[in-house]
Amino acid sequence: xxxxxxxxxxxxxxxxxxxxxxxxxxxxxxxxxxxxxxxxxxxxxxxxxxxxxxxxxxxxxxxxxxxxxxxxxxxxxxxxxxxxxxxxxxxxxxxxxxxxxxxxxxxxxxxxxxxxxxxxxxxxxxxxxxxxxxxxxxxxxxxxxxxxxxxxxxxxxxxxxxxxxxxxxxx
Length: 171
Fold this sequence. Notes:
By secondary structure, the protein is mainly beta. It is 0% helix and 43% strand.
């Protein structure tokens, strides 16, 4: 597990053993909005291109003010592997941020090649980026503890080129 400082558009690794202890590189206390995040890392695997064969991803257990997160690396390509699905069941209710990282996760990509979607257990879309429009790959969704949710990365305008991504889901 990796402990990181929370900041929806920017994650700065602070090391750690998954205990939620976090760290602070500067003098004094961290800003009040800073909280430790325990990230569980995954690599997507095929087949996961339809709702029914979504990769299962899980949050690591956390306590106190420590937040939980998931980071998934993968790629899509509209010609042969246009969609990746992931299923998760949060154990805490609340607002979650779902976004793609660009580079070292200091910003999200802005393009019209892919969208991210959040779906409920019935396949109804709860949140998504707009299709065919340039948009920043960031959205939020309210999750209820104990219910399954799906996150889809859809590459609809990548052609034969692979679109590598880092998908982050964080409470």
